[in-house]
Request: fold
Amino acid sequence: MVDDLTIVSQLEDLTRARAWVGDHARAAGMPEQTVNELRLAVSEAVANVIEHGYRGEPNHNIDLHLAVDGTQLVLTIHDDGDPFELQAYEPPDLDQPHEGGYGVFLIRNLMDEVRYESPPGGGTTLTLVKYYRKDKRTDGRPNGE
Amino acid sequence: MELVTEERDTLAIIAPRGDIDASTAADLQAELDRLLGNAVRYFVLDLAGVGFIDSAGLATLVRLYKRVRIGEGDVRLAAVPSQVMEVLTLTRLDRVFETSATAAEAARAVTGRE
Reply:
């Protein structure tokens, strides 16, 4: 199963992105905890694109592509904003509470694979992969029906 | 996200309903700033109605924690849903924030009236 969603670079669209990923993850039979992990990862990734990639400017497109094959969910997020500076990323010191800096840390900890790429056409493509086993209680049917 | 706040002298019980994310955390921050300006020192965040929290929501909680702990105040979380607890645990903020099963218990604990 594959699907696409294009949102615009405004924080109000975070809800749309989360709901879209969450609905697909539930329909694929993922346990609720895994669904929540995906919702959080996409929310953090899209918020980073809006706040840093597009510097808070509205009306830029963010393209999401999702593929589910029964064992893994692959989500790509493409934007044409400033590239993510992977070398500049430093994980937070978890022995102290911080007022920021948890976003990328959460993405990396919640996903099984995280890749940043700069495709030839420009922009940044972030690929998130989550492996899963179907929740036997739902057997792929949403809401346990 | 909707916010319901109950103020009792220096104690406030804030009950957000909905998602606390990068688009709504500023509303929660504004309410916390208003309460701090009203000399509230003890804060209970009743999270029973919160379906989702992200790093922006965490940042708001940590900011409040740091501000109240400068003085004699305190903050406590109540009725923490599983998604929120998972994020707190991943970031080890579960070691920072005290929690209670209900807002009433948290209110007694945070003001030292247990």
